[in-house]
Design brief:
This is Choline transporter-like protein 4. It is found in: Apical cell membrane; Membrane. It is a multi-pass membrane protein. The protein has 220 residues and is an alpha+beta fold. It has 2 domains: 35-67; 71-219, no CATH class. The protein has helices spanning 2-15, 37-60, 64-67, 93-98, 102-107, 141-144, 163-168, 208-219; strands spanning 87-90, 116-119, 127-128, 175-176, 179-182, 185-188.
Length: 220
C-alpha cells in the first residue's frame, strides 16, 4: 500500500496534477471558424498581390537585368556582341562610391554616374595617366591611354582631342585600381594590395599617399 502511494506521488511530480472532472465542461468546439475576419481578408489580399506581381514579372520582366551587367549604352556584357566581355568596368569608381544622394541615384536608375564599358577581365593593378600626357600632342596619346579600356567607338590613333578633353568627356579612364569581378562588375579589391602602391600612382594635384587615402576612404 505504501509503495503504491509512493509511485502515485512520483508520477504526479513528473506529469503534474491530474485534471479533475468538470461536469460543466462542454468539450472542444466541433465547428470552428475564423475569429478575425478583417486580418484574414488582408492576408488573402496580400497573397493575391504577390501572385499578380509574380505573373507580371514572368510575362513582362527580363531576367537579363539581374543576370548580366550593362554598359553605358545599355548593352549587356557577356551577351552578343559582347559575349567575350563578361565584366563591366567603371571609368571613375570614386563617383560610384561618393554618389550618396538617394534621389539622384534613383533618377539614374540606380546606375553609377560614370562611363561603363564591357571588358574581358577586370584590371588587377594600379595605373594612372602619366602627367606628360596632359601636354602631349593628340597623335601621341595612344602611348599614354589604354585603348582597350576606352569607349569602343573612340579611336586614340585618329583623335584630335587633348588628354584633358578625353578625360572630361569620359572617353578613356585616367586611372584604375586593382579590382575583382563580383557578379560581373569590376569592384575595388580591398586589403593588402594597398600596402604596395607604386610611387608613380597619383591623381592630378595629389601625392601618391593622398590618392590612396582618398580611394580607401571612398571605397572602404
Amino acid at each position: 500500500m505504501g509503495k503504491k502511494t509512493e509511485d502515485k506521488q512520483q508520477q504526479n511530480s513528473e506529469y503534474g496534477e491530474p485534471t479533475q472532472y468538470d461536469p460543466t465542461f462542454n468539450g472542444p468546439i466541433h465547428n470552428r471558424s475564423c475569429t478575425d475576419i478583417i486580418c484574414c481578408v488582408l492576408f488573402m489580399l496580400v497573397l493575391v498581390g504577390y501572385m499578380v506581381v509574380g505573373i507580371l514579372a514572368w510575362l513582362y520582366g527580363d531576367p537579363r537585368h539581374v543576370l548580366y551587367p550593362r554598359n553605358s549604352t545599355g548593352m549587356y556584357c557577356g551577351l552578343p556582341p559582347n559575349q567575350d566581355k563578361p565584366n563591366v568596368f567603371y571609368f571613375n569608381i570614386l563617383k560610384c562610391a561618393t554618389a550618396t544622394n538617394i534621389m539622384a541615384a534613383a533618377l539614374q536608375g540606380l546606375q553609377c554616374p560614370t562611363t561603363q564599358i564591357c571588358v574581358r577581365s577586370c584590371p588587377s593593378s594600379f595605373w594612372s595617366l602619366d602627367l606628360a600626357a596632359y601636354t602631349a600632342s593628340s597623335s601621341d596619346l595612344k602611348i599614354y591611354f589604354k585603348q582597350e579600356l576606352c569607349v569602343p567607338s573612340f579611336n586614340l590613333s585618329s583623335t584630335t582631342l587633348s588628354a584633358t578633353e578625353i578625360i572630361n568627356r569620359e572617353l578613356c579612364p585616367f586611372f584604375y585600381t586593382p579590382t575583382s569581378s563580383v557578379l560581373g562588375r569590376c569592384l575595388p579589391t580591398l586589403g593588402p594590395v594597398y600596402n604596395s602602391v607604386p610611387s608613380n600612382f597619383s591623381l592630378p594635384g595629389m601625392s601618391s599617399n593622398q590618392t590612396v587615402n582618398m580611394i580607401k576612404d571612398a571605397t572602404g
